[in-house]
Amino acid sequence: QVQLVESGGGLVQAGGSLRLSCAASGRTSSRYGMAWFRQAPGKEREFVARISANYGNTAYLDSVKGRFSISRDNAKNTVYLQMNSLKPEDTAIYYCAADSLAPSSRKINDQLRYEYWGQGTQVTVSS
Questions:
Q1: Where in 16-103 does DSSP place strands (E)?
Q2: 82-97 tens-digit pLDDT
Q3: C-alpha angle 64/65/70, rounded to 5°?
């Protein structure tokens, strides 16, 4: 079992920055691929970014490439999402998720691939 707790959300003006954190506890979290998803009001939850367990390979939603950066500190069991040049359309609840350890045929942007989820943190970008 893995428990995930997000923090770092808040209200920021367009063009500003925020850094989200996801603290993991329980089973050795460094073994898990980790991802960030977001859900805006009235919209489906969407993939934002992922970092692999072993080599730190990363992947991003096209609309956040060059602005967002995902990283992990395995010593602290924490995953980060650095968000720069924020836009009003980035407003959403951001969720941290941990991949299943079992092999999966689902794509990395498929939320059904992920076994553990945090409670979410609100990010609001004002224009």
A1: 18-26, 34-39, 46-51, 58-60, 68-73, 78-83, 92-99
A2: 999 999 999 999 999 9
A3: 85
